[in-house]
């Protein structure tokens, strides 16, 4: 890449989620021009009903390399509980869902629960996002420029495109083709939703653990997770929001259960909850009639393989590069490392240390190797923990939530 190209290097970011915004902040710090696009509108970006938390642990080490110091200082604003102390939890307690007995603690490196919405809003400060931009196509022309076209008829050109558009990434489809980009379903499904309980129950849940507590039922391997999602007033437990997640292997669902309708889903959720020890039993039974539970299927990118990045012009980041099942809490942490690594790669291009093709290829190779390793470990975790016979052979016993290493 010529000196003029380095000087005028312009990055297109598709997706204003956590990874896309962190890249934008890092490029801004490096004085590298960029444009960031988001498919959601300014309204739905803030009001979407599907809101959840994420477990931040080893990935926190990569944030400061991209965020300006003033936002790093305010990072606690992204916590589910902004007043959380560093020693609030040392890991994730796993219980026997039938008896309530503590089985083990899944080790983690300074775990925090962060709000997806709060983190995006913090990372978005000072960043100009173009909303309502649903990607139609991305291509590289004969002049080496990247062109992105959107469903509203608009388009943009740049020098590099990084797809940060999630597990169902349209950028990934443009890079590897629709067939190769397709996700593989895992025979594990889940309900995952936010909920507020009364003050007494809310306090009781957090007494178990300030961040999260989970259990596996020995009779059918169903997992029941409760974690803190939002604490607007620490003195009023009735204002706290929790993330409620129940997941199971599909073939354990009785034939009488109807998961095609909202009433059927809630009936199944409550029937399973009634089998649990406290506090999961009370939490499940407290969910009001009429609550609409979303049903999600576990997925991962089984077809992941080295992709053609068009001499460094097209690449992927975060869930677009390595969508994985959620039961080891690795998605956010790997996405943060991806973002920091991508910014570091572009810094080297700008300085003239390496060319664009080499920098992005080195980035891609590392992301693919690390991401494929974790997708496979997380898949094993998902399958093993939903079976009482294999629970103690799952990765959480040997590795906890620590970062996977090739060796």
Care to describe what's here?
The protein is α/β, with parallel strands linked by helices. It folds into two domains: 3-82 and 112-184 and 299-389, FAD/NAD(P)-binding domain, CATH 3.50.50.60; 186-298. Helix content is 32%, strand content 23%. The chain has helices spanning 3-8, 18-29, 44-47, 69-73, 116-123, 170-176, 178-181, 199-208, 262-273, 280-286, 331-351, 356-385, 395-398, and strands at residues 11-14, 34-37, 53-56, 91-96, 102-107, 112-115, 129-130, 135-140, 146-150, 155-158, 160-163, 184-195, 212-216, 223-230, 241-249, 295-300, 314-316. The strands form four sheets. Strands 5-4-13-14-15-12-16 form a seven-stranded mixed beta sheet, with helices on both faces. It has a five-stranded parallel beta sheet with strand order 7-2-1-11-17, with helices on both faces. β4 and β5 form a beta hairpin. α9 runs antiparallel to α10 (280-286). The longest helix is centred in the C-terminal third of the chain and has 30 residues, at 356-385. The model has no long low-confidence stretch (mean pLDDT 94).
In short:
The chain has 407 residues and is α/β, with parallel strands linked by helices.
Show the helix and strand layout.
Layout lengths: L2 H6 L2 E4 L3 H12 L4 E4 L6 H4 L5 E4 L12 H5 L17 E6 L5 E6 L4 E4 H8 L5 E2 L4 E6 L5 E5 L4 E4 L1 E4 L6 H7 L1 H4 L2 E12 L3 H10 L3 E5 L6 E8 L10 E9 L12 H12 L6 H7 L8 E6 L13 E3 L14 H21 L4 H30 L9 H4 L9
InterPro entries: FAD-bd, FAD/NAD-bd_sf
Protein name: FAD-binding domain-containing protein
Keywords: FAD, Flavoprotein, Monooxygenase, Oxidoreductase
């Amino acid at each position: 890449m010529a000196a003029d190209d380095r000087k005028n290097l312009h990055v297109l970011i598709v997706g204003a989620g956590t990874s896309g915004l962190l890249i934008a902040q890092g490029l801004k710090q490096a004085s590298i021009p960029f444009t960031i696009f988001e498919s959601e509108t300014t309204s739905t970006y803030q009001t979407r009903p599907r809101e959840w938390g994420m477990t931040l642990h080893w990935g926190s080490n990569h944030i400061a390399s991209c965020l300006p110091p003033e936002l790093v200082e305010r990072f606690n604003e992204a916590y589910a509980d902004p007043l959380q102390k560093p020693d609030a939890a040392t890991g994730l307690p796993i219980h026997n869902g039938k008896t309530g007995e503590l089985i083990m603690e899944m080790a983690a490196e300074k775990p925090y629960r962060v709000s997806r919405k709060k983190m995006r809003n913090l990372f978005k400060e000072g960043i100009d996002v173009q909303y309502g931009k649903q990607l139609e196509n991305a291509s590289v022309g004969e002049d080496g420029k990247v062109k992105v076209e959107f469903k509203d008829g608009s388009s943009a050109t740049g020098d590099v495109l990084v797809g940060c558009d999630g597990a169902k990434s349209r950028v990934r489809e443009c890079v590897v083709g629709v067939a190769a980009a397709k996700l593989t379903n895992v025979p594990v499904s889940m309900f995952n939703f936010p909920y507020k309980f009364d003050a007494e129950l809310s306090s009781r849940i957090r007494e178990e653990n300030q961040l999260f507590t989970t259990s596996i039922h020995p009779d059918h391997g169903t997992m029941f997770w409760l974690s803190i999602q939002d604490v607007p007033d620490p003195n009023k437990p009735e204002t706290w929001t929790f993330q409620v997640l129940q997941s199971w292997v599909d073939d354990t669902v009785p034939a009488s259960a109807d998961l095609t309708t909202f009433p059927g889903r809630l009936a199944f959720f409550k029937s399973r909850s009634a089998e649990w020890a406290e506090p999961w039993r009370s939490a499940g039974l407290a969910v009001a009639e009429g609550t609409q539970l979303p049903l999600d299927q576990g997925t991962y990118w089984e077809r992941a393989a080295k992709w053609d990045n068009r001499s460094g012009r097209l690449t992927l980041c975060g869930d677009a590069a390595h969508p994985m099942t959620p039961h080891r809490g690795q998605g956010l942490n790997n996405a943060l490392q991806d973002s920091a690594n991508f910014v570091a790669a572009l810094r080297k291009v700008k300085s003239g240390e390496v060319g664009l093709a080499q920098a992005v290829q080195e980035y891609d190779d590392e992301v693919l190797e690390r991401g494929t390793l974790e997708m496979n470990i997380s898949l094993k975790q998902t399958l093993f923990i939903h079976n009482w016979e294999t629970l103690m052979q799952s990765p959480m016993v040997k590795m906890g939530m620590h970062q996977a290493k090739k060796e």
